[in-house]
Amino acid sequence: MAFREYKIGCMMFGVALSTSMFVTIFLPGLDISAIGSTEEALKKQLTYGWESGFNYYDPFLAGKDKPIKVTLTHDPVTGKKIDKVDAYVFKPGTHFPNGLTHENIMGKKVLALSNSRGHINQASEENGGVFLVDVDAASGTPYVEFATATKGWSVDATLKAADQQFLAGSGKTMFIREGCWWCHTLLPEETQDWQTFGRPPVTGDFNGESPTTFGSDRKAPDLLHVGSRNSSREWMTMHFFNPRLVQPHSIMPRYNYLWGKTDAKGNVIDRQKWDREFMAYNNGETAYPPEVPEPAPDSDARKLIDFVLNLK
Amino acid sequence: MLKYLFANEEDIPQGSTALFFAFSSIAWFIIGTGLGSFNAAKLAFPDFYHNVYWLQFGHMRQVHVHAVIFGWIAMAFAASMMYITPTLGNTKLWSEKLGVWNCLLYNVGLCLALALLWSGMTSGREYSDHIWPIDLYIAFVMVVPWALNVWMTVLNRRTQGIYTTNWFFAACMFMTIIVFLIGNLPEFFHLTGLNEAYMTWWFAHNILGLLITPVAAAITYYIIPKITGNPLYSHRVGHLHFWSIVVFYSTPAAHHLMSSPLPEWLKSFASVEGVLILVPAIAYVSNILLTMQGKWSMFIENIEVKFTITGVFLAIPLNMQGGFQQTRAINWYIHGTGWIVAHAHLALLGFSTFAEAAAVYYGIQVLLRRKLYSSSLANFHFWMLLIGFSLYWVSMTIAGLIQGAAKIYEVPYIDVVIAEHPYMIVRWLGGTMVFLGNIVWMFNMYMTATAGDHVPEGRQPAEVAYTR
Ligand code: HEM
Ligand code: HEM
After folding, report:
1. Which of B58, B182, B198 lies closest to A28 in CB terms?
2. What is the pLDDT of residues B224-260, one digit of tens each?
3. Are B156 and B94 in contact (CB under 8 A)?
4. How far apart are CA B216 and CA A248, in angstroms?
5. Within the 51-70 window of chain A, which residues sit less than 8 Å (CB to CB) from chain B?
6. What distance in Å separates the CA atoms of residue A100 and residue A102, rounded to the nearest whole number?
7. What pLDDT does A3 receive?
8. Domains of chain B as residue ranges with CATH
9. Predicted-complex ipTM score
């Protein structure tokens, strides 16, 4: 049957939609990609690793395939005292973040310095290694240093010499899996959050991070700099086990299940009993609340607390 | 329905696909709003069921959002398209068999997708939370066959032109597939940083703007003229609506990230384009309301018109709110507060749900040629939805304004949490009314299918009197 084919309409539709995508995807993409990593971005990438959401290497979001952030006050090789420094340890096989592998994400200047001074071109995922973030004093350009090549710091020696190990990379996976970002944002707003939640990020601060989990509904404090407001591991531990323990009006869910079956000493955690004792305390029948168990070193709770405390 | 999976195409009664989708959508509506109500209870009383780890807020919130968007809204759209497209083309659905399979695999896929989300397997990106294998399943098993059925039916039409509703349907299915595949590029190709954040909202914005808004509008373009008997007020204004949706609604994605460090030009551009969405919005609302001329009594008497027109009325504050909340002067105040949650529910639970509910009410009656079982129950459902929604919207809007004020005065955050508490409770009560209303709806539709009075050939359900 002879009917209208709407040729012009279909063509116009194609033109309109393509133009729209050109302006709203292609151009912003070019613009955003032209900006190199800031120091903040380099640190974040080296802390969080390749991907924190679902991915082939960690399909169940258990926090696998992640680097470990350590603080050092002694040189792992010589054992001499050094200025306190953060190092990022990638065990062999851990995937590198995009910044280390993509020139445009790191930015031309940053990459040039990282290669010439940091020797990151010698790093490989199979062998792993230890990374540092430095800033070139003259130009202010940040760069990544591959300490395994420049200083001979090996993975094992660095882990052994570490004063503290932060499983913040695995913790970010927990943050995503447990949906903390439905209540908390990781983005102090540009207009009015300076005073309360700290410095809003700048464009280059996100390079290589995935997912960024800004959060769109804020029902709770912004967490981007929470570690500088509150650095007490004890408070965090109690707060995650039951937020009502330290903040009676909080609507934050309890995360006591992230402790797993046993605590740091290997004792079985009896949550029912804990609840009964907590209720007794709540009703004024006992003077002190029950003790919060210390999370085991490989528990999800430990990873999450490390992540939060690391948000400076 | 399942017996048609392996039947010959000719043996499958026309409308089977639409019915299958329609009843599935109501079921998902109940499930989705039930989950919503549960989440709301958690936000009001955080220790509600705290010992059941499966029921953690952080695991359930996205399940609610995807159950209502993919389960209720999208399936109600599919149901509407599966019967409206052939009717307007004066033809049959291209393939009922494909349709029945599509619906089955849609339900299976959605159960799987929600189960994975529930267990915490997520991409960590709002609205595109599904992991990429599920994204591919959604695109190629759930959406492409559906689109194919719509497109082929339009191509096989036996009318010369294409009525407004059908161009919207065909174009929106195309745009949905494009938006879905492009919006998920960050996951397919591991894009990172601000590009990833921006693409996440490009996806979310365009799924709302190029699927949900226009398809809900297209449905009302069919229901109102069909039931009132008035021709659409203006085909030209319909054109204006369509083209301005394509041009203006596809561009302001960045207005969801006004407080992030995106390039300034992009935010300004988005803000201007966002105000321009008022063009399609006003064109659409005036077109429908003018179509009602002389038939306003049906707004009171006829349940489908009542639902549709209420939805259209709700589109007015929705778009006004949208247009001004994304300007820089105002966005900083309400961004990320309960105000946005209220806006989201005004859009999806208000405007679009009311339009779709009408299409599902009407579709089940004409497909089965049975009169709606009970008008009292239908009115009960209507009022439960409207009052429940209003409680939700008012309480969350107030909560949002409180949160906004707290941004200026920099009060300790816990004071905000305390101040919001009563509104959280009201939201929970309102949302629960919607959930309960939906259970009544399912009962009413089930009784319609089994015990509704027969509508004689060539007659409209509206022409038959109610007995209950
Ligand atoms: C003139 C029309 C509209 C404009 C300009 C507009 C603008 C906006 C803006 C700027 C936001 C984000 C606010 C923020 O987080 O700061 C938003 C959120 C939202 N809008 Fe609209 N809107 C409009 C109409 C609609 C319509 C028709 C729908 C759907 C049918 C809709 C659904 C939503 C949803 C679901 C959200 C919540 C997104 C989230 O999770 O944060 N809006 N809108
Ligand atoms: C068809 C009906 C509904 C649709 C389409 C819908 C859709 C949505 C959407 C899109 C969001 C995300 C909002 C945002 O991020 O800004 C959301 C969140 C939510 N919805 Fe619904 N919803 C519906 C009904 C309900 C009902 C009946 C309740 C019951 C109270 C409810 C409770 C909630 C809650 C508690 C949240 C979380 C809000 C937050 O995180 O602050 N929803 N819903």
Report:
1. B198
2. 999 999 999 999 999 999 999 999 999 999 999 998 9
3. yes
4. 44
5. 51-54, 59-61
6. 6
7. 61
8. 16-452 (1.20.210.10)
9. 0.94
How many other CB atoms are found less than 10 A from the CB of residue A109?
Answer: 15
Q: What is the pLDDT of residues B380-396, one digit of tens each?
A: 999 999 999 999 999 99
DSSP letters, chain A, are ------HHHHHHHHHHHHHHHIIIIIHHHHHHHTSPP-HHHHHHHHHH-S-SSS-TT-TT-SS-S--EEEEEEE-TTT--EEEEEEEEEE-TTPPPPHHHH-HHHH-HHHHHHHHHTT-GGG--TTT-EEEEEEE-TTT--EEEEEHHHHT---HHHHHHH-SEEE-HHHHHHHHHHTTGGGT--S---TTT-HHHH-PPP-GGGGTT-S-----S--SS---TTHHHH---HHHHHHHHH-GGGT-TT--PPP-GGGG-SB-TTSPBP-HHHHHHHHHHHHTTSSSSPPPPPPPPTTSHHHHHHHHHHT--
How many CB atoms sit inside 10 A of residue B155's CB? 14
Interface check A169 vs B, CB under 8 A: no
Q: Which ligand is nearest the CA of B356, by number?
A: 2
pTM as predicted: 0.95
Residue B100 φ/ψ, nearest 5 degrees: -65, -40
Beta-bridge partner residues of B284: none
